[in-house]
Inverse folding.
Protein backbone atom coordinates (compact mmCIF):
# COMPACT_ATOMS: atom_id res chain seq x y z
CA UNK A 1 0.00 0.00 0.00
CA UNK A 2 1.42 3.35 -0.95
CA UNK A 3 1.41 6.50 1.19
CA UNK A 4 -1.55 8.12 -0.59
CA UNK A 5 -3.79 5.10 -0.09
CA UNK A 6 -2.73 4.79 3.56
CA UNK A 7 -3.38 8.49 4.19
CA UNK A 8 -6.80 8.33 2.48
CA UNK A 9 -7.80 5.20 4.41
CA UNK A 10 -6.66 6.73 7.70
CA UNK A 11 -8.56 9.94 7.00
CA UNK A 12 -11.78 8.07 6.18
CA UNK A 13 -11.42 5.90 9.30
CA UNK A 14 -10.81 8.96 11.48
CA UNK A 15 -13.87 10.75 10.07
CA UNK A 16 -16.02 7.66 10.50
CA UNK A 17 -14.88 7.25 14.12
CA UNK A 18 -15.52 10.92 14.82
CA UNK A 19 -19.02 10.73 13.28
CA UNK A 20 -19.72 7.57 15.26
CA UNK A 21 -18.68 9.26 18.53
CA UNK A 22 -20.84 12.31 17.74
CA UNK A 23 -23.78 10.02 16.96
CA UNK A 24 -23.42 8.20 20.28
CA UNK A 25 -23.43 11.54 22.11
CA UNK A 26 -26.51 12.61 20.15
CA UNK A 27 -28.26 9.32 20.94
CA UNK A 28 -27.50 9.77 24.63
CA UNK A 29 -29.00 13.26 24.50
CA UNK A 30 -32.09 11.84 22.79
CA UNK A 31 -32.42 9.13 25.43
CA UNK A 32 -32.30 11.74 28.19
CA UNK A 33 -35.27 13.60 26.68
CA UNK A 34 -38.44 12.99 28.73
CA UNK A 35 -41.07 14.01 26.17
CA UNK A 36 -41.76 11.02 23.91
CA UNK A 37 -42.49 13.01 20.75
CA UNK A 38 -39.38 15.15 21.18
CA UNK A 39 -37.33 12.00 21.78
CA UNK A 40 -38.72 10.39 18.61
CA UNK A 41 -37.91 13.46 16.49
CA UNK A 42 -34.43 13.54 18.02
CA UNK A 43 -33.83 9.87 17.11
CA UNK A 44 -35.10 10.50 13.58
CA UNK A 45 -32.67 13.39 13.15
CA UNK A 46 -29.72 11.32 14.39
CA UNK A 47 -30.60 8.51 11.98
CA UNK A 48 -30.86 10.97 9.08
CA UNK A 49 -27.41 12.31 9.95
CA UNK A 50 -26.02 8.77 10.05
CA UNK A 51 -27.60 8.00 6.68
CA UNK A 52 -26.18 11.17 5.17
CA UNK A 53 -29.49 12.97 4.68
CA UNK A 54 -29.09 15.71 7.27
CA UNK A 55 -32.01 18.15 7.43
CA UNK A 56 -31.53 21.46 9.25
CA UNK A 57 -33.20 21.65 12.69
CA UNK A 58 -35.09 24.81 11.77
CA UNK A 59 -36.84 23.07 8.85
CA UNK A 60 -37.86 20.12 11.03
CA UNK A 61 -39.18 22.36 13.82
CA UNK A 62 -41.17 24.43 11.34
CA UNK A 63 -42.80 21.31 9.83
CA UNK A 64 -43.56 19.76 13.21
CA UNK A 65 -45.05 22.98 14.63
CA UNK A 66 -47.36 23.26 11.63
CA UNK A 67 -48.70 19.75 12.27
CA UNK A 68 -48.81 19.77 16.07
CA UNK A 69 -50.44 22.21 18.46
CA UNK A 70 -49.35 22.78 22.04
CA UNK A 71 -51.12 20.81 24.76
CA UNK A 72 -52.53 23.13 27.40
CA UNK A 73 -51.34 20.92 30.27
CA UNK A 74 -47.66 21.09 29.29
CA UNK A 75 -45.67 23.06 31.88
CA UNK A 76 -43.97 26.11 30.42
CA UNK A 77 -40.57 25.42 31.99
CA UNK A 78 -40.16 21.96 30.39
CA UNK A 79 -41.03 23.12 26.87
CA UNK A 80 -37.92 23.62 24.77
CA UNK A 81 -38.44 26.26 22.09
CA UNK A 82 -36.48 24.17 19.59
CA UNK A 83 -38.32 20.95 20.40
CA UNK A 84 -41.73 20.01 19.00
CA UNK A 85 -44.63 19.63 21.41
CA UNK A 86 -47.24 16.94 21.99
CA UNK A 87 -50.40 16.94 19.89
CA UNK A 88 -53.76 17.97 21.29
CA UNK A 89 -56.55 15.42 21.10
CA UNK A 90 -60.15 16.61 21.09
CA UNK A 91 -61.46 13.35 22.53
CA UNK A 92 -59.92 10.49 24.45
CA UNK A 93 -58.83 7.59 22.31
CA UNK A 94 -58.98 4.22 24.01
CA UNK A 95 -56.64 1.68 22.49
CA UNK A 96 -56.70 -1.91 23.64
CA UNK A 97 -53.15 -3.09 23.80
CA UNK A 98 -52.40 -6.28 21.94
CA UNK A 99 -51.70 -9.08 24.35
CA UNK A 100 -49.37 -11.91 23.75
CA UNK A 101 -49.98 -15.51 24.69
CA UNK A 102 -47.51 -15.08 27.55
CA UNK A 103 -49.59 -12.27 29.04
CA UNK A 104 -52.81 -14.31 28.78
CA UNK A 105 -51.29 -17.38 30.44
CA UNK A 106 -53.06 -18.19 33.70
CA UNK A 107 -55.54 -15.35 33.36
CA UNK A 108 -58.42 -17.71 34.07
CA UNK A 109 -57.18 -17.92 37.67
CA UNK A 110 -57.59 -14.19 38.30
CA UNK A 111 -60.57 -13.11 40.36
CA UNK A 112 -63.47 -12.07 38.13
CA UNK A 113 -65.56 -9.00 38.76
CA UNK A 114 -69.27 -9.30 39.52
CA UNK A 115 -70.17 -8.02 36.03
CA UNK A 116 -67.99 -10.68 34.39
CA UNK A 117 -69.54 -13.39 36.57
CA UNK A 118 -73.05 -12.22 35.64
CA UNK A 119 -72.24 -12.17 31.90
CA UNK A 120 -70.64 -15.61 31.93
CA UNK A 121 -72.72 -18.32 30.23
CA UNK A 122 -73.18 -21.30 32.49
CA UNK A 123 -75.20 -23.57 30.20
CA UNK A 124 -76.67 -23.72 26.70
CA UNK A 125 -79.37 -25.83 25.04
CA UNK A 126 -78.78 -27.41 21.61
CA UNK A 127 -80.69 -29.76 19.34
CA UNK A 128 -78.86 -32.88 18.16
CA UNK A 129 -78.62 -33.13 14.36
CA UNK A 130 -76.64 -36.39 14.24
CA UNK A 131 -75.25 -38.64 16.96
CA UNK A 132 -73.04 -41.59 16.16
CA UNK A 133 -70.76 -43.76 18.22
CA UNK A 134 -67.09 -44.30 17.44
CA UNK A 135 -65.27 -47.63 17.58
CA UNK A 136 -64.68 -47.12 21.30
CA UNK A 137 -68.39 -46.45 21.97
CA UNK A 138 -67.81 -42.70 22.47
CA UNK A 139 -70.40 -40.29 21.07
CA UNK A 140 -69.59 -37.93 18.20
CA UNK A 141 -72.39 -35.38 18.24
CA UNK A 142 -73.23 -32.76 15.61
CA UNK A 143 -75.69 -30.04 16.59
CA UNK A 144 -78.01 -28.12 14.29
CA UNK A 145 -75.81 -25.00 14.62
CA UNK A 146 -72.89 -26.92 13.07
CA UNK A 147 -70.84 -27.50 16.23
CA UNK A 148 -69.25 -30.93 16.63
CA UNK A 149 -68.61 -32.36 20.10
CA UNK A 150 -66.99 -35.61 21.18
CA UNK A 151 -67.51 -37.58 24.38
CA UNK A 152 -64.37 -37.63 26.55
CA UNK A 153 -65.36 -40.10 29.27
CA UNK A 154 -66.69 -43.65 29.17
CA UNK A 155 -70.12 -43.10 30.72
CA UNK A 156 -73.29 -44.25 28.97
CA UNK A 157 -76.11 -42.06 27.68
CA UNK A 158 -78.68 -42.69 24.96
CA UNK A 159 -78.78 -40.01 22.23
CA UNK A 160 -80.63 -39.69 18.95
CA UNK A 161 -81.27 -37.01 16.31
CA UNK A 162 -83.73 -34.34 17.43
CA UNK A 163 -82.94 -34.62 21.17
CA UNK A 164 -82.67 -31.41 23.16
CA UNK A 165 -79.46 -31.47 25.20
CA UNK A 166 -78.01 -29.12 27.79
CA UNK A 167 -74.29 -28.32 27.83
CA UNK A 168 -73.11 -26.98 31.19
CA UNK A 169 -69.77 -25.97 32.64
CA UNK A 170 -68.29 -27.99 35.48
CA UNK A 171 -65.22 -27.79 37.66
CA UNK A 172 -61.74 -27.33 36.17
CA UNK A 173 -63.05 -26.35 32.74
CA UNK A 174 -65.05 -29.51 32.17
CA UNK A 175 -68.18 -29.37 30.00
CA UNK A 176 -70.99 -31.85 30.56
CA UNK A 177 -73.81 -32.89 28.24
CA UNK A 178 -77.15 -34.21 29.48
CA UNK A 179 -80.52 -34.75 27.90
CA UNK A 180 -83.10 -32.14 28.77
CA UNK A 181 -85.08 -33.17 31.88
CA UNK A 182 -82.70 -36.10 32.65
CA UNK A 183 -79.95 -36.43 35.28
CA UNK A 184 -77.43 -38.70 33.55
CA UNK A 185 -74.58 -36.72 31.98
CA UNK A 186 -71.39 -37.32 30.03
CA UNK A 187 -68.27 -35.23 29.70
CA UNK A 188 -67.72 -33.74 26.21
CA UNK A 189 -65.11 -31.71 24.36
CA UNK A 190 -65.71 -29.48 21.37
CA UNK A 191 -64.11 -30.63 18.12
CA UNK A 192 -65.34 -27.98 15.65
Amino acid sequence: MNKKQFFATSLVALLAFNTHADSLNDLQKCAATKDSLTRLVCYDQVMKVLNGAQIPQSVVNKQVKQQISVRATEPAKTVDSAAPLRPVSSKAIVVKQATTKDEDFGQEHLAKTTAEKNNEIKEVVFVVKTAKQTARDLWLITFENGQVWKQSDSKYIKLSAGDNVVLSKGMLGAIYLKKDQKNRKIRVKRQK
Summary: Strands lie at 123-133, 139-143, 148-151, 164-169, 175-179, 185-190. Helices lie at 3-32, 36-50, 57-67, 101-104, 114-119. The chain has a mean pLDDT of 74.
